[in-house]
Amino acid sequence: MLSTVEFTVESLSAHHVVEKLSRAGIPVLMAKSMGKTSVRVRIASKDRKKAFAILRGSCYNVKNLSRHGGARLLEWARRAAGLILGTVLFAGVFLFMESRVLKVKISGSGAYYEREIMEILREEGVHLFSAFPEDTGPLTAKVLSLDRVEFCSFRLKGGVLTVGVEVGEEARPLDMLPLLAPASGRIEELIVVRGTPLFAEGDAVKMGEVVVADSLPEGGKKIAVIARVTVRYRVDREYTLPEQEALAQAFLDFGELKDLHIRKTERGCRISGTAFSTASVGLD
């Protein structure tokens, strides 16, 4: 497991941080713009001391340090070696309780359906201290059958099951459209509330391919798709701009970039990394 550290760099020239670290031979594993004067950066743990010395010596403000992967595990083990057993036991109990329904919260414009939704949950075996089912299909179908309900979601965190329910202003049929891949790459996330998925997370897709079909496998009956897909893909673009401006433009063009690399060219600089593109049907 790669040990990494993540931190925020603040300065009027914060977007120079990737260039500065790269010149010092420190690979930047991830960089994300947090505003005009701050950038979130991830590097290997072994490069932390060298990076901090370079940045602090150049008047950059480094804050919000967090560790990931092996570095976090090693630090935790060193500081709490005598409490490992107790912590493991506590974590086991905590994780068990995290997977149990301790409270139900209904949110959204359809929250007035609380009584009906609570009854649906009971019918499907979801009650106090019960485990939440991995397959939410039956729950989703029943909630969507309520009058004017157009969308519902389920989220279990900290023992709190949040049921999000949205209703339309007036009853209207949803568009019968398939969900298409917004870019060529690999599927990072796929959420299907209604529709026939033709791909799974991790699959390679091409831009424009049907990811979720608007018909049922049996009989080909048309249905209204409710789904969202996020595709990760590689980007490699040359900008005829100085490095700071090119990096800022890349963030504007692609949003979040991971595995970021920047190198100078005769015309300006070339920026490469992993970007993400999201498309949805029936989910705003």
Please characterize this protein's 3D structure.
This protein is an alpha+beta fold. It has seven helices and 15 strands. The strands form three sheets. The protein has a nine-stranded antiparallel beta sheet. The chain is globular, with a radius of gyration of 24 Å. The chain starts with a strand and ends with a strand. The relative contact order is 0.12. About 2% of the residues have low confidence.
Tags for this model:
284 residues, alpha+beta, nine-stranded antiparallel β-sheet, globular
Number of strands: 15
Whole-number radius of gyration?
A: 24 Å
Order of helices and strands: EHEEHEHHEHHEEEEEEEEHEE
Which stretches are poorly predicted, pLDDT < 50 over at least 5 residues?
90-96
Instruction: Estimate the strand proportion.
Output: 35-45%
**Which sheet architecture does the biggest sheet show?**
9 strands, antiparallel
Indicate the percent of residues in helices: 25-40%
Output mean pLDDT.
81
Shape: globular
Oligomer type? single chain
Put simply, the count of helices is 7
The strand order across the widest sheet is: 4-1-3-2-14-15-13-9-11
CA-CA gap between termini: 37 Å
Q: Which structural category do the helix and sheet elements fall into? A: alpha+beta
